Amino acid sequence: MIDRVMSAARAADLKRRYPLAFRRPLREQVLRLAGWTAFSVVTLYCLWRFDFSPVKLWSGLGELGGIVNQLFPPMPGEHPREIFWALLETVAMAFIGTTLAAFIAFPLAFLAAKNTFPFGLARFGVRRFMDMLRGIDQLIWALIFVRAVGLGPLAGIMAIAISDTGTLAKLFSESLENIEKKPAEGLKAAGANNVQTLRFAMLPQVIPMFLSSALYMFESNVRSATILGIVGAGGIGFQLSDRIRAHHWEEACFILILILITVAIIDWISKNLRMWLIGR
């Protein structure tokens, strides 16, 4: 009995000293309820606006099952060489686009980092330029360049290069801003100029991260280049969309399997290279 009284007294004392640990304030409860209510209303409105219904979903799944049934067995078709050549074109398109983006992003990163470019207004302009480049999706850039330079892999290369320049420049600049400052301070104390400090104190720290980011973007762009081909930017995506439009599902399945194998191989190689660079 005494233990119960002491426990109740201690609990009452703890509630008095730490009220927020036992009960949330009324304002926080109201805000939480309002947040969940708004989330539910927006979700239900979107489902109603997009005509979502279990009946339509079930009907679509049945149609999807029929398409999946037509995918097997996968067949290369009458022109397998054309498919393999398009696959190599897609990988080359991703590689060239990523390489161009990395070379352009390298100087931009130094203009966007606080510790390498102290001019605030100019740095703000560079950052907003980078936002514009990566803010427009690769698919939109591909449509623009298909209109500008015509169908083919050149449009895909330019779309990847433009979009990835903004992304890589941001990643590179953040790496520059997060470097260890002591090596640079030590070199400056020893009389090194800005170029020497950049070369011997900053670049050795960031180059592995630069290469790691570029490799990751390359493996991502192999997947993206497949989508770009569907809108006319060449590569395996064009072959895939052509088979789907013609309802040659067995050939489409063969192309999908090739894409999956290629992406898996590139992911494995890229992962090991990144780990080697970061580890070193």
This entry's quaternary arrangement is single chain
Q: What is the annotated CATH architecture of the largest domain?
A: Orthogonal Bundle
Q: How many separate helices?
A: 11
| Assigned CATH superfamily of the largest domain | MetI-like
How would you describe the overall organization of this protein?
There is one protein chain. The chain has helices spanning 2-17, 26-49, 54-71, 80-112, 120-135, 138-149, 153-177, 182-189, 194-233, 236-245, 249-279. By secondary structure, the protein is mainly alpha-helical. It has 2 domains: 20-70, no CATH class; 80-279, Orthogonal Bundle (MetI-like fold), CATH 1.10.3720. It is flat. The termini are far apart.
Helix and strand topology:
Layout: H1 2-17, H2 26-49, H3 54-71, H4 80-112, H5 120-135, H6 138-149, H7 153-177, H8 182-189, H9 194-233, H10 236-245, H11 249-279
Helix pairs in contact: 3-11, 4-7, 4-9, 4-10, 5-7, 6-7, 6-9, 7-9, 8-9, 9-10, 9-11, 10-11
